[in-house]
Amino acid sequence: MDRVAIIGASMTQFGQRDAWIRELLAEAGQAALADAEVSPDEIEHLYVSNMASGEFEGQTGVPNALAHDLAAMPAYTARIDQTSSSGGAGVYAAWQSVASGASDMTMLVGGEKMTHRSTAEATDVIASLTHPVEYKHGVTLPSFAGLTARLYLDTYDAPRESLGRVAVKNHKNGLDNPHAQFRKEVDLETVLDSPIVADPLRLYDFCPITDGSAALVFCPESVAREYTDEYVVVSGIGGATDTHVVHERADPTTMGGVVNSSEIAYEMADLEPDDIDVAELHDMFTILEFLQSEDLGFFEKGEGWKAVEEGVTDRDGELPINTSGGLKSKGHPLGASGVAQVYEIYKQLIGDAGDRQVDADVGLACNVGGFGNCVTTTIMESR
Amino acid sequence: MSDENPPMEANRYPDGSITYPGHPVGPDGEEPVGTVDLSAYTATVLTWTTSTATPPGVRQPNTLAIVEFDVDGEPVRAIGQVTTEEVEIGDEVEPVYCEELRDPDAGIREHESQEWDGYRFEPV
């Protein structure tokens, strides 16, 4: 079977940008086309991962806008919204379009414009994904993180400091990412002394609000060889959901969507968790890195915090996690994040990650929407 | 708790499970066979947080808890505001009615699309 390859990738500067959503998407789209040396008229399918351009900016219809801005007509387009995991869901849609034979050249662009809104407004736009019984109580994504972090620390007897070490590690990694929103090291004391946002979590346990965009170009491996020697293969991908109402999950410290999506991806790739050399996880909150690293099978349940404490997930550790700096340091423009995770793995696998480079042939990206409500896990391999 | 207050309504399904909120079908895919008013029960705090970065129209700070009711041996969880910031895991709480949990006109959600009253949890 002809495998699905990624032959080009880009990401814009993440952070507070003057550009609006159309401009951000076009910037990443043009850069990815240039990277892949593909002309716009070759694009057959064009997907845009975006959660809320209508709510944030009053701009809807972004896939068609992007098709025009890139001169990619008459490419088929669709917007992929799966909240924070829109990017991962876009990777799934792009993979599917090529794997099914519907498209021989697919572009995926993920992006979000958020920073023109206040933190309270942006938090509310994101919280609008919650069930009415959650929303009416003022439940937000950060509050889910606080609730889960307290339960995790209590259940597994993990020290508060272990969460802080995730922030310290990812900020250190982000220092070497030229596209990251924060290129600044933080020490554990700073994390633990920062203002409380959702007790026991503090400011540095959370990712920032971010503008940015990222893009990928997909095609069959047989077509990829015509363009480049530098490509990666999507060898496994899975998507899964968990309950909409978060408190209805049997174990609130387990993300069923991560477990189920990764099982599908591992089976498709015929790989085990031990085979993964590098991973990008959805550290929207520090606690999420523990939950995912356990639910992906990297570590036993309740042991993920120890791996961070022991340096296993450092850039020079046995299993580097979030070499890009993660959402924590790189920033989290909702629809772009899952695409940017795959960008990082792509760069690592083709050996073009610069100062962030690790030794890796197999990489994994796990993109989480809501509080584990929707998840896509993607496994990529060097050609 | 007063007889005039609306119930804190959970659905009971054929397999015996109960969910709050109710859904069109239960975990096994079967339609509900009845309802339970959770406001008649006390619950235990499973976990809690105090959120300081709250959205428009939400009290600040906002202490929230996930609690677990025991309805004749069947566990049922719920999330909601806590009446105080003084709460711990394992505390017993009772539902206390509140006419308006947040300002329905301040946030992004359409006012008429949902209800805004409900039950806070108060340590017993």
Automatic annotation (TrEMBL), chain A:
GO biological process: isoprenoid biosynthetic process
Residues of the Thiolase C-terminal domain: 238-381
Keyword Acyltransferase: yes
Thiolase N-terminal domain residues: 4-222
Keywords linked to the UniProt accession: Acyltransferase, Isoprene biosynthesis, Transferase
One Pfam family linked to the record: Thiolase_C_1
Molecular functions (GO terms): acyltransferase activity, transferring groups other than amino-acyl groups
CDD domains per UniProt: SCP-x_thiolase
Alphabetized InterPro entries for the sequence: Thiolase (IPR002155), Thiolase-like (IPR016039), Thiolase_C_2 (IPR055140), Thiolase_N (IPR020616)
SUPFAM superfamilies in the record: Thiolase-like
Keyword Plastid found: no
Protein name, UniProt field: Acetyl-CoA C-acyltransferase
Organism of provenance: Haloferax mucosum ATCC BAA-1512
From TrEMBL, chain B:
Region of interest: Disordered: 1-34, 103-124
Pfam families from the UniProt entry: OB_ChsH2_C (PF01796)
InterPro entries for the chain: ChsH2_C, NA-bd_OB-fold
Ranges for domain ChsH2 C-terminal OB-fold: 36-96
Signal peptide positions (record): none
Protein name per the record: ChsH2 C-terminal OB-fold domain-containing protein
Organism: Haloferax mucosum ATCC BAA-1512
